[in-house]
Amino acid sequence: MTDKTPKLREALDGIPTYKPGKPGAASAGAVSYKLSSNENPYPPLPGVLESAVAAAGSFNRYPDMACTGLLAALAERFDVPVSHLATGTGSVGIAQQLLQATAGPGDEVIFAWRSFEAYPIITQISGATAVKVPLTETEEHDLDAMAAAVTERTRLIFVCNPNNPTGAAIGREALERFLDRVPAEVLVVLDEAYREFVRDEDVPDGLELYRDRPNVCVLRTFSKAYGLAGLRVGFAVAHEPVAAALRKTAVPFGVSQVAQDAAVASLGNEQALLERVESLVAERARVSRELVVQGWTVPPTQANFVWLRLGEHTVDFAARAEQAGVVVRPFPGEGVRVTIGEPEANDIFLQTAAAFRKELEA
């Protein structure tokens, strides 16, 4: 028997593993809330579960690979041609497809850091080189530095707006000025997973920018505001060459029929969606105000989470929060991201933050 093993791509050596938000772990009958994955705390919208259950009755059959019904619904809702749409297993799945279509060994992919932690992972999988541009001192994208980082090897730029995990969002003038500086042959991906939570009128809708910019692609997801995280369905809006490339790189039958039908039903109940999002936005404002009163520096957030830069105290705070009954998302040495959840969960987090702040100041 040989001691040799199959030869794998060197690009996979040392690749970091994506770390999902830690689940809540109730003990001794106590309730534990999960505030670590930016999930929507509400159940599916009215009518969505029924659509999903009906679709599940035929999961012995393959789903519609073309996602015909979902694409038609998206085209109508966002006033875009069907040919400009592509679906995937969440926006992160589409992001990986984009890298498959644009970048490989010798190419470069630019993104802010810290930003969505999947960016360096999927970039390394593609064999391309990640170019991480540090955030500003106010936790925002340094767009001037990102534009200056573009070289002849740059193939794709991720712009997470609002940014995960800091929640900071980019205004229209700054984003348009940045896009004007990017060469036409470089694809700019506006990752708008949290778009529905944006209330700052100065933050542009990426779909407005994409319409007359062939090198702009917009990513959206049903995982956050729509509450379909467990079904894995997202979509991209881009001009036809990019959208066609996404369809070519898609995993066949990747989006289940359950997910497709649930997404269509969710689009059809937008009024209920907006009501739920408004309640979360109100909770976001309450949590942010209280943290500021406690003495924390909290970046203005346009997403469904808040960010506390804790540095060396990050892991300790996460452990303290878990003991109190809420699980947050720590980035060791940097800070914690805390999802806006049920009011009860938010209260526990605020109580923990207040006590921890007092200890730091003692």
Describe this structure in words.
With 362 residues, the protein is an alpha/beta fold. Helix content is 38%, strand content 15%. The protein has helices at residues 48-56, 68-78, 90-102, 118-126, 143-148, 172-181, 206-210, 240-249, 257-267, 270-294, 314-324, 343-361; strands at 33-34, 85-88, 108-113, 129-134, 154-160, 187-191, 216-221, 234-237, 305-309, 326-327, 329-331, 335-339. β5, α6 and β6 (187-191) form a beta-alpha-beta unit. α1 (48-56) packs antiparallel against α9 (257-267), α3 packs parallel to α4 and α11 crosses α12 (343-361). The chain starts with 32 loop residues before the first strand and ends with a helix.
The run of helices and strands is EHHEHEHEHEHEHEEHHHEHEEEH
How would you describe the shape? globular
Largest sheet, in brief, is: 7 strands, mixed
Q: What are the low-pLDDT stretches, counting only 5+ consecutive residues below 50? A: none
- Helical content stands at 25-40%
How far apart the termini lie comes to 64 Å
Radius of gyration: 21 Å
Given the structure, what is the number of helices? 12
The fraction of residues assigned to DSSP E strands is 15-25%
- Write down the overall mean pLDDT: 94
* Tally of strands: 12
